[in-house]
Amino acid sequence: MKLASDNSWLQWTLLAALVLPVPHGAAQTVLLQTASVSRDTIRLSDLLPPGVSNLMRRAGEQVDLGRSPQCHTVRFFEPSDIGKRTSSWPELQGITLSGPVSVQRTCFPIRRDAVQQVISAFVRQRTPDIDIVNSPLHWPETIYALQENPALEVEQAFPDPARPELQVRVRCVERTVCPSFWVAIPTRQRPRLLSAVPLSAAPGVPAAEPGRALVESGQRATLVFDDPPLRIQLAVTCLQRGWLGRQVRAIDPSTHRVFRAEVTGAGTLMAHL
């Protein structure tokens, strides 16, 4: 009989533990180990798992963890970093971490059709005899922006002195959203209006003078090996500043091999095998 009475007491104790409210701050909330953000500043709320209370999420929105990383880079937070920022918030007591937290920036690849559209409009205004709507666009790597479908504009355009090709520098209208990048566009002819002086996209963008540097030290460039019937392109990093016709050194980042090449256009070098 005593055993039955003890079992009954135990059942009521367990039931009470399930239905009675948990004291404030006693519940444990484990932060996400990886998170992605799409704004410039990281908030603690970005690290909270789904299902936390509105009170905790609103408090987490007020805790600033610093600037978000750039595209394809990661920022790490140790438990001590989080603890320092949450210690003065009663609503955030009980937060735990199972290890370092990594935060990435959500980035968006720039769409090819958007680049084609802005370049076509630019060229059509200045050289109506060129139609590049169906021309292939070439750039060395995928360009990412901090916003989806950012507004683009052409900054400069150079004719390639060695072949019927247009070198166009494109950027985001809001400059902090994406880096400027060069696009190569083959053309069927070398039109009269495309001279050695680059076309300026807007009154605020100065046109380059003949002899102005077309590559800078540390700049990514395309190295072309032109030995018919072979034509090979290689993404390299320039080691010297150079203008049209100058010989500069460039390095292949993957093999660390150094080449001497001639500057033939904006962001374009040429060498022989």
Model description:
With 273 residues, this protein is of the alpha+beta class. It has 3 domains: 26-105, eubacterium ventriosum atcc fold; 107-210, no CATH class; 213-273, Roll (SH3 type barrels), CATH 2.30.30. It is 18% helix and 32% strand. It contains 4 helices and 18 strands. It has helices at 2-19, 54-61, 79-86, 112-126, and strands at residues 29-30, 34-37, 41-43, 64-67, 74-77, 95-96, 101-105, 108-109, 144-145, 152-159, 165-172, 181-186, 199-200, 220-227, 230-238, 247-251, 258-265, 268-271. It has a 5-stranded mixed beta barrel with strand order 14-15-16-17-18. The chain is elongated.
Order of helices and strands: HEEEHEEHEEEHEEEEEEEEEE
Shape: elongated
Tell how many strands the DSSP assignment holds: 18
Strand order of the largest sheet: 14-15-16-17-18
- Note the beta-strand portion: 25-35%
Helicity level, as a percent range? 10-25%
Number of helices: 4
Q: Could you say how many structural domains there are in total?
A: 3
Q: What's the N-to-C terminus distance?
A: 98 Å
- List low-confidence stretches: 1-26, 191-211
Compute the gyration radius: what is it?
A: 29 Å
Find the structural class using helix and strand composition. alpha+beta
Averaged pLDDT: 76
Main sheet?
A: 5 strands, mixed, barrel
